[in-house]
Structure formats: C-alpha cells, structure tokens
Amino acid sequence: MTITLNIHNEQLFDKILWFLNRFQNDGLEIITHNKDSNQKDEKEPLENKFSQFSGMWENREITQESIREQAWK
Prior knowledge:
single chain; mainly alpha; 3 helices; elongated
C-alpha cells in the first residue's frame, strides 16, 4: 500500500515526518522527495497572503503617527 502526501509547509512536513518515523520499526518505509530548485514555486495569490494578517492589530491603538514615533526612537 502507498500513500503520497504533498506538503507545502516545511514545518508541517517536519512534524509529520517525525511522527511517521516512529513507525519504521513496525515495517513502515518512508521515501521523501524534496522539491527541485529548478521547479517553479507555486505561489499563493497576493490577496490570500494579505488576508492571513486580517485582525492582527484588532483592539490595538496603532496609527501611522504612533508607528512613526517608534521608528525615530
């Protein structure tokens, strides 16, 4: 039996690989393939990346003026 996983998040990949390595003594064979550096990266649209930050500054008094004041300190 074979399972193929495509994991784009390196941290998640490491966690899953760590977990699966615990089963190697039970006969699990792990074959990993890293992306070739020549392959095109599948990029997320900029809109999706930007929306990940929505709500980040919620309930905080952040203004352009306060950011400028901090930058000059």
